[in-house]
Write a structure and sequence with these properties.
The chain is 35% helix and 22% strand. It has eight helices and twelve strands. It has a five-stranded mixed beta sheet, with helices on one face. Strands 10-7-11 form a three-stranded antiparallel beta sheet. The chain has a two-stranded antiparallel sheet with strand order 1-2. Helix 1 crosses helix 3, helix 1 packs across helix 4 and helix 5 crosses helix 8.
Length: 284
């Protein structure tokens, strides 16, 4: 069974226009071509899609369902073509937990001012590539180098590593904490996207690790006092939460902020994004 887009467009045109004659005018073909195309679609599907009288054309029950499916398919195809041919017109930047912290708003405003012809959209996707591998974005802000060699990445800046804790935790009384202060506690981590691993501590002084997969869940659990968290300072900027405080980890390694893209198919705006992000982090 072979069904093509031409047949689906013909069916939708007949239903929308109400007659074969008007559908032919809408499609820019002859009325005979419309009749042949519909007949080939009904033959391919093995069902009757339209009832035809001398005065009107109405869909059958099966025809109504088929038209609904056809509209969705055609809309998806139109989106596909628009996305593939947009070039400089659209730019989607993915991120997993936090985008660019306190630089996020400045980046959006400066991009809009300096590149008015390219619409910018920030997209949160909680995956290792922040939506890049899934096709949800064109570029991605990540905080660890992608393991997949299909992707290229460049460091655009560094962020301090912070400890997140409940506001009534004893450590919250301090202005800063050390990695050793977290030994014997439970640290909530996201192994897919985060930068917190056992290797941040010596083998004899490692905390217990518990796993989560969402920043809101991470914050909710930490606010109860059951777990602590370590994260980039951008998280504190983007997700202030009542009941949760952030303290600098004095001896915690800084976290590299990277821009990642498809190695063999970079977005046309990649270089411009790199230059702007690097400039923003240098202005600190």
């Amino acid at each position: 069974m072979a069904v093509d887009l031409r047949q689906l467009r013909c069916l939708v045109a007949i239903v929308d226009e109400g007659t074969f004659t008007d559908a032919a005018l809408s499609l820019g073909v002859s009325q005979a071509a419309v009749s042949r195309t519909l007949a080939s679609l009904e033959q391919a599907l093995g069902v009757r899609l339209l009832r035809r009288t001398s005065r009107e054309v109405t869909p059958t029950v099966t025809g109504l369902r088929t038209v609904a499916h056809a509209r969705r398919v055609l809309a998806e195809v139109d989106d596909l073509v628009r996305d593939a041919t947009s070039g400089h017109a659209h730019l989607r930047i993915g991120y997993a937990w936090s985008a660019l912290g306190r630089h996020t708003l400045a980046f959006q405003r400066r991009w809009g001012s300096e590149h008015p012809g390219t619409d910018l959209h920030l997209v949160r996707v909680n995956s290792a590539t922040a939506g890049l591998a899934e096709g949800a974005c064109d570029l991605a802000v990540v905080r660890r180098a992608p393991a997949d060699r299909r992707f290229e990445s460049v460091i655009v800046g560094l962020e301090r590593r912070l400890c997140a804790m409940a506001a009534d935790d004893p450590l919250a009384r301090r202005r800063s904490v050390r990695m050793a202060d977290l030994a014997g506690r439970t640290i909530l981590v996201d192994r897919r996207t985060g930068t917190t691993t056992e290797d941040l501590w010596p083998p004899e002084a490692r905390p217990a690790l518990e796993e989560t997969h969402d920043v809101d869940d991470w914050l909710n659990v930490i606010s109860t006092g059951r777990c602590l968290g370590t994260t980039a300072e951008s998280t504190a900027n983007q997700y202030p939460r009542p009941g949760v405080v952030y303290r600098p980890l004095r001896d915690g390694e800084p976290i590299a902020v990277r821009l990642a893209w498809w190695r063999d198919d970079p977005h046309p705006a990649t270089q411009a994004v790199l230059e702007l992000l690097t400039a923003l982090y240098r202005e600190e």
